[in-house]
């Protein structure tokens, strides 16, 4: 049970970091504004997104709100009832990220995205603008995928 308390703290901290970062962007950038952080490689660019992670399937805010609520409900259920110890961190990350974007969808009608990386593939950038919540969902999903499908010996 001690591990779950720590991971709940991690999830709440991730949610708080996401909320703080989006607040700072909303307060200091107008929509569409972009500022270089490390030259052309990394920029802060404020956009809104009614789609899912990394700007895919825009214009479906209500659908993705319902889907996100279902996903976070499943994550919480597995976190509390079913998860093995090795699955707790990725579930906490996914839940924190989903909660951050759910908050945006409910209170703003869209998700605030702002992290932009230019990987040097002109004339387009294959990496869409995203936020901390998206990064937590993708990181948690990748870890969970690795644990469940890649790793040969779960006892490692």
TL;DR of this structure?
With 156 residues, this protein is of the alpha+beta class. It has helices at 2-28, 61-82, 88-108, 132-150, and strands spanning 34-38, 42-49, 111-117.
What can you see in these coordinates?
With 156 residues, the chain is α+β, with helices and mostly antiparallel strands. The chain has one domain (2-150). Helices cover 57% and strands 13% of the residues. The protein has 4 helices and 3 strands, in the order αββααβα. The protein has helices spanning 2-28, 61-82, 88-108, 132-150, and strands at 34-38, 42-49, 111-117. It has a 3-stranded antiparallel sheet with strand order 1-2-3. The two termini are 21 Å apart.
What secondary-structure arrangement, pairings included, does this model have?
Blueprint: H1 2-28, E1 34-38, E2 42-49, H2 61-82, H3 88-108, E3 111-117, H4 132-150
User: Which whole number gives the mean pLDDT?
Assistant: 86
How many angstroms separate the termini?
Answer: 21 Å
Number of helices: 4
Tell the overall outline.
Answer: globular
Strand content: 5-15%
Q: How many domains comprise the coordinates?
A: 1
Summarize the helix and strand pattern as letters.
HEEHHEH
Radius of gyration: 17 Å
The main pleated sheet reads as: 3 strands, antiparallel
Low-confidence stretches: none
Strand-pairing-aware structural class = alpha+beta
Number of strands: 3
The percent of residues in helical segments reads 55-70%
What order do the strands of the largest sheet run in, or round the barrel if closed? 1-2-3
